[in-house]
Amino acid sequence: MKRNRFVIALGLLAMTGAVLQGCGGKDNGNGASSPSASPSASASGSAPAESSQTPQEENVTLKVWGDLGNQAVLEEPFKKINAAFAAKYPNIKLEYDFAQNDQSLNVALQANELPDLFWVQGDKTAKMGEMVKNGFLMDLTSYNLDMSRYSESEKTYCTVDGKIYCSLPSFFDTNVVYYNKDLYEKNGIQAPTTWDEFVQGLDTLKAAGITPITLAGKSEWDRAWPIFAFAPAFSNTALKAAQAGQGKLTDPTVAETLQAFRDFVDKGYFGKDYLAQDYAAAQFAFTNGKAAAIIDGTWSNATYVDSGMNLGRFSIPNKEGKKVVQSSYSNFMTYAVSAKTAHPDQAVKYIEFLNSLEAQQILEDAVGLVPTLKDITPKDEGVKELAVFDEAGVNIYSVLTALSSQESNTADVFMKDVIPKLMTSAITGAEGAVILDKAATYPAQ
């Protein structure tokens, strides 16, 4: 994002966060909103002069940016969401375009030409807070959004300095192993209950000439999903301690997390062509049966369901058999309003609609995410399978973001330096942990 035009752009660009793809994933990716009467409020939160027309009466057009990186997943549900909104508010026209990625958002911030609404990642990264500090987002607090359906952690996701800045999250993102049940059954493998069973199954598949796990080595975020999944299983306690300043990233379990990823490389579990493979190619290798599994976000569930394969899902168990998963709220429906919008009241109507059960159920029925609100009905049994885990653990990217400073972006070091070196067997897990430790800024005790 950015600060004083160009300076702000450079500062926020350095804090690029997880498209936790959704990030989902957060992750790519990578912790779960509502309508009400809305008093008028200006971009700064103070009440503007009363309009002679209500938001329903005044004909306006709102420019909205959708998530370009997840257009394939989100295009159909957002057509339905936006059509339902138009039926409710016929005088508010939406120009909804899948135009937003990190680059386009940074350009818009630098030029101070944001759309009326655009998606944000809440407190998953530092970006929304930076935009708030530099006056780019409209404070929604005075609109008294109905947040009665939401937990405190979901409200916190959208809160900066005690004020609300986006629609609230209602779905949970994590990383799971999607697997081909036919290939597993053919080779006598079942969904594992311990880490050792998981690895033994991979050895069996490799011996049968099947790529155990396909990996998008060319994609900065998608190649990171295995470590995002391993981290809470191996080092949840150590990562929480490091974030609190009560431990260090040189903890042996952090090194073990990173080494597990390198071991998968060295043992050939990712096949032969993973370094040159992009995300689409990795997904195709899985859906066409060349690879037995892929580690991906819950946000990609619909893609694999639509392939028609005999699909299974499991969270990675640790050595004791406990399934501790990366936790992150989905940003598929978390939108903010530009502080410079000419139509704040109407923009908040869209925020309110995204917070509604009606809009959330449309997304659930289309994509099959893990709901965090009890009144959202899971799409099917597959969604329930995604939610089978014992504990929601830390998101390693969020931990490393918290340990970053203006001088050293620890999360960036992880994504751009440590993971590529592990993936090419240039460093060990212990060496990677030392690199992260040197880049980290721990909170003072």
Automatic annotation (TrEMBL):
Do you know which InterPro entries this protein is assigned to?
A: SBP
Q: What is the lineage of its organism?
A: Bacteria, Bacillati, Bacillota, Bacilli, Bacillales
Q: What is this protein called?
A: Raffinose/stachyose/melibiose transport system substrate-binding protein
Does the keyword Iron belong to this entry? Answer: no
Here the segments flagged for biased composition (Low complexity) are: 32-52
A GO biological process this protein is involved in? maltodextrin transmembrane transport
**Pfam families (UniProt xref):** SBP_bac_1 (PF01547)
| Keywords tagged on the record | Signal, Transport
Signal peptide location: 1-21
Single annotated GO MF: maltose binding
Describe the family membership recorded for this protein in Swiss-Prot or TrEMBL. Answer: Belongs to the bacterial solute-binding protein 1 family.
